[in-house]
Amino acid sequence: MKQIFVLAEHRQNQLRDSTWEAIAAGRELAGKLGAELTCLVLGSNVGALAEQVARECPRVIVVDDPKLEHFNSEPFVKALVPILEPRKPFLLIMCNSNSVIDLAPGLAVALDAALATDCFGFEVENGKVMALRQMYSYKVNALVSFKDAEKVIATLRGGAFSFSSAGGTAGTVEKIASPLSDEPLRKRFVNFVEAEKGDVDIASADIIVSIGRGIGDEEDLALFESLADAMGGVLACSRPIVDKGLLPKYHQVGTSGVEVKPKVYLALGISGAFQHLGGLKGNPLIIAVNKDARAPIFRAAHYGIVGDLFDIVPALEEKIKELRG
């Protein structure tokens, strides 16, 4: 691959963290392949965003069109195809967000490109890129090759790549004419609905105590709230707890909940389904407690305890209070 592209994601005039993670992956691959790295910024009145991206990327291509103001996979595909097709061979990197999950398959079909989704790493062998991804509910790590494909699209698992500022000279910004016509679209943007916000913001917490299905039908959350307080953290949960009505939606960690970036993540009675782990960003210290020794969470955890939560949690809290004096 001689060209590596990254698609910038933004919402309400703010670049999303996924943009920087994709740039981090693109930088790493560009260095290994000796390839040119370019970030694509599509939207309406996105000049300031393009300049922001250019501080961290050597080249930025901008398509500014009112039809791209709000994300809609249909006009995005129509805008991206004429940009990418003449520039093959290329690799396009995007993070595996909800928007990209909608965009990537249609774009791959339109470009007749190879597609690998939810990748957590890349390897380069003899100048060819191979993607690392997990299969069978995280039971198998697969190294995926693209044969001789000249057009490759890869989506990244959130948090798989850590971004740090390069601090170099700002890159070039090239604005190109929008290829979109006035042809009616089959899909249209209706409105943007903000996620429910409550008295606890788990997205900004450094320490999270998270509970899952393994707590059984226990409706008294005082035991787990007390542990979270003792640790100086906040209480979160997996989806089954929200489905039971024990905690509101804004406490849920996962791809259908809130993305979090804690320093410490204590998972209590959480099985570790990929939808839940997909909400963990960055590189937190994961500690798991589960009575099932085969629970998938133990494959993601740095430390694990197999045992009964209702024996371990009080003992853990007592020890924390003892150490804190």
Question: Keywords for this structure?
Answer:
325 residues, alpha/beta, Rossmann fold, 2 domains, 9-stranded mixed β-sheet, 9 helices, elongated
What this model shows, in words?
This protein has helices at residues 17-33, 47-54, 73-84, 98-111, 222-231, 239-243, 274-277, 297-300, 309-324; strands at 3-7, 10-11, 14-15, 36-43, 59-64, 90-95, 114-125, 128-135, 140-144, 151-156, 172-176, 207-211, 234-237, 264-268, 285-290, 303-306. The mean pLDDT is 91. It has a nine-stranded mixed sheet with strand order 9-8-7-10-6-1-4-5-11, with helices on both faces. A five-stranded parallel sheet has the order 13-12-14-15-16. A two-stranded antiparallel sheet has the order 2-3. It contains nine helices and 16 strands. It folds into two domains: 3-176, Rossmann fold (3-Layer(aba) Sandwich); 202-324, TPP-binding domain (Rossmann fold, 3-Layer(aba) Sandwich). The relative contact order is 0.12. Strand 15 (285-290), helix 8 (297-300) and strand 16 (303-306) form a beta-alpha-beta unit.
